[in-house]
Each structure stands twice: as C-alpha cells, then as structure tokens.
Amino acid sequence: MLKGNFYTISNVVKEEGQVNLTLELNAAHPIFQGHFPEQPVVPGVCMMQIITETLEEAVQQKVLLQKASAMKFLNMIDPVQQPLVDVTLTYKPEENGGWKVNATLKREATTFMKFQGVFK
C-alpha cells in the first residue's frame, strides 16, 4: 500500500460509480532516491497502484488487474514540482464479477496518465 506513506489524500468526492480525489505526493519518499536521485519521477507502477488502491477503497474489496485495454503515460510527474495530482476514476460492474475502470491522473491542464481496463 502506498497510501499514507507515498501519498496522502487531501480531498475525496464519491458518487455512484465515480471517485474524484486530490492526492499529495511525498517527495521525500525513499523510492525517489532510486527513481531518480537528481530528477525524481513517479514510477508508472506507482501510478497503477494509486488506481488500484482508489478502486479498492471505492468498492470495498481487494482487486487484481485482469486486463489493461489502454495505459498511456503522457507526462512525467515530478513530486517536487507537482506534488498535487487529481485522480478521476469511474467504474462499473461487469457480468463476470469484475470492474470496468477508466482513470485519469492529471493536474489542471496537464494529464499524466490515462487508463482503461478490467479489475477482478
């Protein structure tokens, strides 16, 4: 789990099938010593973990990524220059018991990541 250490949540708005939140990245987190010491960048795997944790909290169950239809990393997130990130996640149940998910990580006009996929 990255929540509480790698990032904290400062604002959450939940609606049926959608979560909007703002998170604050911890630029002092040890992961940035290796990724990368002179130019910290949020790893893509951490962005995916943020999406996973957001979904798990919304549906109140553990989930596992089954299929990534689209996963686009559009801009790097430097936690020093851009400590706040807005996450929008929409989800709907599938017939097989999974969750169809669309998610975006962005701040103002800059989109960092777009995701479409299925969790189960």
TrEMBL record:
InterPro entries: ApeI-like, HotDog_dom_sf. Residues 14-95 form the ApeI dehydratase-like domain. Gene3D superfamilies: Hotdog Thioesterase. It comes from the Bacteria. This is 3-hydroxyacyl-ACP dehydratase.
